């Protein structure tokens, strides 16, 4: 088995950016990806300088194409099933669902996170008329009749105040959760109506929201809106590699992508343990790759 300098797990903006940086540093790097990045449902990505409005898959295709000139970079489409470290040899072995194995000195975890919704129907509209990030999708839905769907008062407060910047035609749906009188009064002063009844159904076609039906029997017209998902890591690689976590469940790093396990690095939403913009994730990938290259340089010089 050939030994690689680094294996990058995940070909989102963080993993791709890191791979490009490592390829340009003449490092032998292999990137493994299974195509489950969470922005695959997104119609357009926004806020990435020079690429505003691009489809996420197109951005990924361009990045993959730009890796081709670097002969030390290789790519495979497969799912990583296990990662473990041989402490005696100080090397990592990565196994995949295709019964392949890779050996490397360094590992970069860039597998990101995934969303979960308390209302399962949201998935039918997510990425087309319901979104989680106003900075990413607020402009396209400015001045439209929008919903904020969230259950935690702090989340409702934060998201509603943000979305109000793009549309004053705003209704809050707390799905059975009561809000404090103080917050309700604050919203009412801005003509923001609040429905606390549980949501029975979402209506629309082809991912385009048309109305929100409540268990109370009311059916309120809305053309789109913003939601607060919960997020989780799709794998346990960091735990398998004995990376330490803080009290908030985030992987501890030195700020430059290095974890507490020597040779293991993280970038993008894996590092943040929450949603991130493409441009920030790409920057984190670049920074982690610089750390990997520096460590390899110092160890071998």
From TrEMBL:
The keyword Flavoprotein applies. Its cofactor is FAD. SUPFAM superfamilies: FAD/NAD(P)-binding domain. It comes from the Bacteria. Residues 5-285 form the FAD/NAD(P)-binding domain. One of its GO terms (molecular function) is oxidoreductase activity. Keywords: Flavoprotein, Oxidoreductase. Transmembrane segments: none annotated. It holds the Pfam family Pyr_redox_2. Homodimer. This is Thioredoxin reductase. It comes from Ureibacillus massiliensis 4400831 = CIP 108448 = CCUG 49529.
């Amino acid at each position: 088995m050939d030994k690689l300098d680094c294996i990058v797990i995940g070909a989102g903006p963080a993993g791709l950016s890191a791979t490009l940086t490592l390829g340009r540093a003449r490092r032998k790097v292999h990137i493994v990806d299974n195509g489950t990045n969470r922005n695959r449902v997104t119609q357009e990505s926004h806020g990435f300088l020079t690429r505003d409005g691009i489809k996420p898959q197109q951005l990924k295709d361009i990045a993959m194409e730009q890796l081709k000139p670097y002969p030390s970079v290789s790519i495979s489409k497969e799912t990583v099933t296990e990662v473990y470290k041989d402490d005696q040899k100080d090397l990592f072995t990565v196994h995949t669902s295709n019964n392949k194995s890779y050996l490397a000195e360094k590992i970069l975890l860039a597998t990101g996170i995934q969303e979960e919704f308390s209302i399962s129907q949201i998935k039918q509209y997510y990425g087309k008329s319901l979104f989680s990030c106003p900075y990413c999708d607020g402009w396209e839905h400015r001045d439209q009749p929008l919903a904020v769907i969230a259950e935690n008062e702090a989340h409702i407060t934060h998201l509603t105040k943000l979305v109000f910047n793009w549309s004053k035609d705003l209704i809050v749906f707390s799905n059975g959760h009561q809000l404090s009188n103080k917050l309700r009064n604050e919203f009412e002063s801005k003509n923001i109506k609040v429905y606390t009844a549980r949501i029975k159904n979402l209506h629309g076609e082809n991912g385009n929201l048309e109305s929100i039906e409540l268990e109370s029997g009311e059916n309120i017209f809305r053309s789109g809106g913003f939601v607060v998902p919960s997020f989780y890591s799709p794998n346990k690689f960091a735990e398998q590699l004995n990376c330490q976590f803080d009290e908030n469940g985030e992987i501890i790093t030195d700020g430059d992508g290095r974890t507490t396990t020597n040779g293991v690095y993280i970038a993008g939403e894996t590092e943040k343990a929450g949603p991130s913009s493409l441009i920030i994730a790409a920057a984190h990938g670049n920074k982690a790759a610089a750390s990997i290259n520096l460590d390899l340089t110092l160890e071998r010089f």
